[in-house]
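Pasting as-is:
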Amino acid sequence: MSPIHLLAPEVADAIAAGEVIERPASVVKELVENAIDADARRISIDVRGAGRTSIRVGDDGGGIPADELPLAFVRHATSKVTALSDLDAITSLGFRGEALASIAAVADVECASSGARVHIRAGEVLERGAGPLLTGVTVEVRDLFANVPARLKFLKSDATEVAAIKDVVAAFALLHPHVRFQLTIDGRSAISSAGDGDRRRAFASVHGAAVAAEMLDIVGPPLVTGMVSQPRLSRGSRDGIVLAVNGRPITSRPLAYALEECYQGRLERGRHPLAAVDIEIDAAFVDVNVHPAKREVRFREEGAVFAALQRAVRSALGASEPVRYQTSPPLSVVAAARGYEAQRGVHGAAVLPLEVASPSEDSRAMLRPIGQFGPGYLVAEGPQGLVLVDQHAAHERVLYNRLLERLRTGLGASQALLMPQAVDVEPALIAAAADHRADLATLGLEYEEFGPRSLRITAVPVEMPAGRATAAVQETLTALSETRGDQGMHRAAAALACHSAVRFGDVLDIAEQRRLLSDLESADESVTCPHGRPTRLIVEWQELKRHFRRNY
């Protein structure tokens, strides 16, 4: 082992740069943050060769004084922090004075501002002098990681690196709609936002007009701003979720969980919403200096932030509407919808595009039953058009709401079984049965231990057929063993509702159809069943008239 010694400056710089600059997207992120901190209103990003060849970022912000330009590339040189106390309330996106130095340590960098220019390669100043007298700052980064070829080996394919760059710019465009972003990849425009402050237009520039039309504004709570998607629009991954604190994009598992929990019972398992949510909080109550790349933060009162986020999102979701059917959509809308997965409709077929109803429309006005068709669909007439209802999903939602109300009030309703039924369960489920006996009794499910690995069911909810009791107990206890807290009881209620509801294929007479439709109309959050499947599909009168050429 060699003796302890100080690292050479270039080695120390390369190590420090590795913590901040991981890939081309990191360069874009740091330079865009500097531009926003400088109050830029227009930011252009030009990328060549997936960022390996060159990245050029220009802005119209405050710029860097000519005599300070070389100093800006010295490690820990910054205009954003002057004293130790400043770290207690950081309001800027950047603050460490490491970004420009880290970029310059692993690339060939040219920067121009305020009539001055500096050229740096691998941390060494090669040239400095006069430059164009333009507003703001222009930084060009060439040959990224050329002096550290080992880092190049760890970069992904060009398509992956380009996607990461787009994600970075998209997040800033959604969170800062007042800034105009122009991202160009190899000469072709990838993202172009208006910068007019309209967040919906920003969404359209990133995700397309069809997706932007499906977004709901978060209004009311001053702490939380942004937009979230209607439950009928979802993705198979969490890539469409952007979270931020004071305009800074962050990664936070607790906040992501808080957001997705609001969609419980609205989205199918494995589906995720789209969102851009910014939490505006006093800088003294959040610590952003906990991660080298500033991706993570720590809240002084995380529970309060968690609760505020959920209140805001649930309030926005109250404006969600049922799925609507449209034929012959415009080609531009179809193209946008194909790029972003939509919630599945009848028989798994995608219903595209999805139209947004006016909030003033009453989507729960009286439905008149017409009949039943297929294995389990009700046909009804409503003021908006023809309505197709999944009878199992609709009844599930009605019963789920009813069970939650019993849980809230403590007023249960059960029917005793004439012949108690025994069911064998795993030890973990026996423990869950013991822990939640009182709550399940409120939901109408009653049982007693019947040996070390068995339960004897003595009563079930009044709506449940006796023959489904054993399967319902198994699924209910499994849900409780896998999930803690209130979420576990909600999943248990969903399981009981599922086993109590009419089955797909059951024949209902007109009176039963009318009662189910009436109950669905009065149910809260009736757009989906507790598992997130749509309860209905609306074919609007205007669409029928257009199809049969009666619109004249």
